[in-house]
Amino acid sequence: MLPKIQRVSEVVWEIPKGYRNDMRVPVRIYATEKLLKNMDEMVFSQALNVSTLPGILKYSYVMPDGHSGYGFPIGGVAAMDAETGVISPGGIGFDINCGMRMVLTNLTINDVRPKLKELVEMLFQRVPAGVGATGFLKLKHSEFIEVLQAGAKWCVEKGYGWEEDLEKTEEKGCIAGADPSKISQKAVNRGIDQIGTLGSGNHYLEIQWVKPENIVDSEIAKKLGIFENQIVIMFHCGSRGFGHQVATDYLQVFLNVMERKYGIKILDRELACAPFNSKEGQDYFAAMKCGINMSFANRQVILHRIREVFSKIFNSDPEKLGLHQVYDVAHNTAKLEEHIVEGQRKKVLVHRKGATRSFGPGSQDIPDIYKELGQPVIIGGSMETGSYLLLGTRQAMLETFGTTCHGSGRTMSRTKARQLVRGEQLIKDMERRGIIVRSVSYSGVAEEFGGAYKSIDEVVEAVSIAELSKKVVRLIPIGNIKG
Amino acid sequence: MNEGYRYLEDIAIADLAFEVQAKNLENLFKLAGKAVSNAMVLDLNSIKKEITKDILIESEDLEILLYNFLEEIIYYKDTEGLVFSDFDVSIETNGKKKLKAKAYGEKLDYKRHETLVDVKAVTMHLFELKQKNGFWYARIVLDV
């Protein structure tokens, strides 16, 4: 651990501005002492590099699930002055708008348990996952361009979803200002067949059980449609090859102009950036928004397939089965938002890389139905341990530009995980513990075993103590589909 | 390590890092290509050489030449569902760097290929390409 980290409160730590001469703001880390001690050192050097970027406001933040990434740490948050600041693809990640979606059912564990194997198998067939997976939608080039502009709205108009799904998605499932003319043909070619696919790695679709003892706030849970022993669904995926190509294309654009044209020192090539108000900055912002919309569309089509599968297995309409979306959150984006900075309302570009919005009660940009409660925050854990539904808070608006953690965060390399665990055996062990796993790859399952991740409980405890989010319910996996 | 590649345990824990070493640049590119393929498919011997793709890349910069070569492997996986088991590479380094390569492989088949993790992108994180102890050496982190 770096010697200069100072404790601000129980779960807030700071590296002061003077630690390195080039810092523009201090670094703030949200973590329990245990989580902080276990963070790899590169997290701190990366957060320090972020603190040097032009236009950064208040702090370079690290969330409790933070670990080293490329350029920015994962769990890194940086809000830039929209007038004087920069935009950096490294502050967003290759998987633009990777995010989480949560869906309710009115089924109970007793309804689902007898049909669980069948359900997992059909979901696995209908929601493609794994290396190079392609979806059922065969789009013409012009249709894919429409998706980039309209996101989940396009899907609902074509019958792949309900109007209310859009209400319960960040940006109503369609961020304004996406400009397909800023996208390469390569990006289009990579993404055109991938709508409705999970991908691999830590992407998954999970069937989860609301155990009565895991409801933390029963009054709020009830308002969100959560009840004891209910079955809910959660899934995690992003913009697939399309977003990856957008990030790759613009990384090279920014590296060419960063120092030469804009005089910004390159500390790390993955921290490539350009002024937000430059041609390159605005081009990337408009291209990145296409990635945001592609990802909303991806998750929308997956929801459509989930509804089809539940309808078939339980021989009932999705409406009667209560398959209502709770919310859809993005955790790899940069968004232009208004926040109070030093008493003034200001336009800021908030980079969240492996970090989730946690907008509190009364905030703009959250659906009316959640105005009183705060925004639902969906936090995915490892496939063995569990996940959380939280709510956004006013404190997060004041402290972290309305931001909280996104998941558990890896602590072990994939190769090491594969050496320790055999996928086939793990699947059998998990079945004995009541969790059915279906994957295209045994090795992929081994890489995602619970021991490769931080404790989700510890991560959520840290944001809960810091009041960046409020706990509603912890969810236990009973079925998991992964790539 | 003489000539070859190996995945690294201790850096980029959430992603997949590897280092590669070879006697000449051509072999380094070939082995780096195999390392990217091997990140996605457990046994490269399970991939038949049924399809050949020509890859042509030019760059002022040797590092970018390697970066873009590896990106092509990911591109073919996403656009045509292809995975490769071997490469023939020739590189011109006088003036503008030029790469001509042939990639040999086939369509991914989950029944015959034990897949590992989908590679999203090649990153510039800790990217190195240099001559070291009489070998060419590269270190690359893949976003997965």
Report on the architecture of this protein:
The complex is a heterodimer of chains A (483) and B (144). Chain A is of the alpha+beta class. Helix content of chain A is 33%, strand content 22%. Chain A has one domain: tRNA-splicing ligase RtcB, CATH 3.90.1860. The mean pLDDT of chain A is 96. With 144 residues, chain B is an alpha+beta fold. Chain B has one domain: Archease, Possible Chaperone, Chain: A, domain 1. Chain B is 24% helix and 41% strand. In chain B, the strands form 2 sheets. In chain B, strands 1, 2, 6, 7 and 8 form a 5-stranded antiparallel sheet that branches. In chain B, strands 3-5-4 form a 3-stranded antiparallel sheet, with helices on one face. Chains A and B meet through α8, α10, α13 and α15 of A and α2 and β6 of B.
Structure characteristics:
heterodimer; A: 483 residues; tRNA-splicing ligase RtcB; eight-stranded mixed beta sheet; 19 strands; globular; B: 144 residues; alpha+beta; five-stranded antiparallel beta sheet; three-stranded antiparallel beta sheet; 8 strands; 41% strand
Structure summary, number of beta strands of chain B: 8
What is the straight-line distance between the termini of chain B?
25 Å
The topology string of helices and strands of chain B comes to: EEHEHEEEEE
**CATH topology of chain A, anyone?**
tRNA-splicing ligase RtcB
CATH superfamily descriptor of chain B: Archease domain
CATH class group of chain B: Alpha Beta
Corresponding CATH architecture of chain B: 3-Layer(bab) Sandwich
Largest sheet of chain B: 5 strands, antiparallel
Strand content of chain A: 15-25%
* N-end to C-end Cα span of chain A: 35 Å
Unreliable runs of chain B, pLDDT <50, ≥5 residues? Answer: none
Number of helices of chain A: 16
Task: Give the CATH level 1 class of chain A.
Answer: Alpha Beta
How large is the radius of gyration of chain B? 14 Å
Tell me the β content of chain B. 35-45%
